[in-house]
From TrEMBL:
Recorded GO MF terms: acetoin dehydrogenase (NAD+) activity; acyltransferase activity, transferring groups other than amino-acyl groups
Gene Ontology terms: biological process: acetoin catabolic process
Organism, as annotated: Caldibacillus debilis GB1
Statement: the UniProt record of this protein carries the keyword Oxidoreductase: no
Family matches, as InterPro entries: AcuA, Acyl_CoA_acyltransferase, GNAT_dom
Domain N-acetyltransferase: 20-193
Record keywords: Acyltransferase, Transferase
E.C. numbers: 2.3.1.-
Record carries keyword Iron: no
Record Pfam families: Acetyltransf_1
Domain of life: Bacteria
Record's protein name: Putative acetyltransferase
Amino acid sequence: MEHPKKYFSKKLELKNGKTLVIEGPVQPGHIAGLKFHEGLVAFREPEEQKEALIGIARLEEGRIIIARDEDTIVGYVTFHYPDPLERWAEEKMENLLELGAIEVAPPYRGQSVGKEMLRLAMMDEAMENYIIITTEYYWHWDLKGTGLDVWEYRKVMEKMMNAGGLVWFATDDPEICSHPANCLMVRIGKNVDRESIEKFDRLRFRNRYMY
């Protein structure tokens, strides 16, 4: 399966008068030439995360959308194939992508940066060829930094994912089922065939009685 990528960009005006550039999918060299905000620490140390983004951008199917304040990356979204060790990779579906990470630096939160990155990602018609999933686990959420409780944060995450067309889907995945705030969110592109949707349903449910 070919993975065409069409670049888009737009501007987002912030409350403080600054203007962010939302753009992508971006090339590895573009990421390498930018600074990485020190507040982007949800998954790794900033420099390590920057290298991880460069690695994903090099993948044939990899897509990185960024929010940029002049020459500094202040937010990003990643799309790539699921980890080979996860259930979502078991059917080896070429048209299933995982939204692996989304992060916005603390000073830029609450201004729709995440929503705008997701909206821009879905502007590419090629995304209609994919089932896109994201697995949300409460232990990845910045509850302390935001002051939100787990259910308030879940609501924020759902609204942000909804902006990209992802909605809640049921599953019997043990990790997701381990806490009621965890969830699977999915966007099924309009060009995805019935056979692929059936394969995905088999991934969602191992126990037939839960269909």
